[in-house]
Amino acid sequence: WDDTLQYLETDYETHEVIVSGGDPFVLPPEALDYLIGRIKSIKHIKLIRISTRLPVVFPEGLNEEHFKVIERYSPLWIVIHVNHPREVTDAFIDVVSNLRKRGSIIISQTVLLRAVNDCPQVLLKLFETLVYCGVKPYYLFQLDEVRGTLHFKVRLERGVEIMRILR
After folding, report:
1. What is the mean pLDDT of residues 109-122?
2. Is residue 125 classed as helix, strand or coil in its secondary structure?
3. Measured in whole angstroms, how far is the alpha carbon of residue 109 from the centre of its chain?
4. With CB atoms 3.0 to 4.6 Å apart as the test, which of 37, 64, 130, 140 could cross-link to 135 if both were Cys?
5. What does DSSP assign to residue 103?
């Protein structure tokens, strides 16, 4: 972290930082506090985005100490990776509510997945459900072609067709 943070301190063209990789919210609150605090102290960094899937897969992993860190450095942009309406559980909604109360701006990213959410009705339900609980749907990604995931790939033409229907 220190090498990256030192680089960011001298790179005046960087105005936004995305904290990702693994999941930042699995860090102990003290480590999250250190990392976000260091980034926030860099005057030319104007925006911090935290990318997470924890509210979906392990909502109880975010505890009161995590929420205090979020509140201390708000506003922070929280990008939640959510792919299907069934992932929007009561526990998910509680975490979103708590993040919003602490001053976070919450958006979502979704990966278009064959036989999971490659249906306009499924995506519409997901996006509307997210909006109702205070999450702005932001990205719909085509799948990265990574070994072991190609069976989830949706043809680009189908993705464009789904977007046309959703609009």
Report:
1. 96
2. helix
3. 6
4. 130
5. T
Tokens 């693994």 identify what position? 22
C-alpha 75/C-alpha 4 separation (Å) is 22
Q: Are strands 77-81 and 105-111 parallel, antiparallel or unpaired?
A: parallel
pLDDT value of position 22: 86
pLDDT of residue 143: 87
Q: Which residue in the block uniquely carries the two structure tokens 């459900």?
A: 129
Sign of CA dihedral 162, 163, 165, 166: positive
- Per-residue pLDDT of 71-96, as tens digits, reads 999 999 999 999 999 999 999 999 99
Rounded Cα distance, 164 and 57, in Å: 30
Residue linked to tokens 């999450």: 135
In angstroms, rounded to a whole number, what is the distance separating the alpha carbons of residues 117 and 127? 11
Phi/psi class of residue 60: alpha, beta or left (left: φ > 0; alpha: ψ in -120 to 50)? alpha
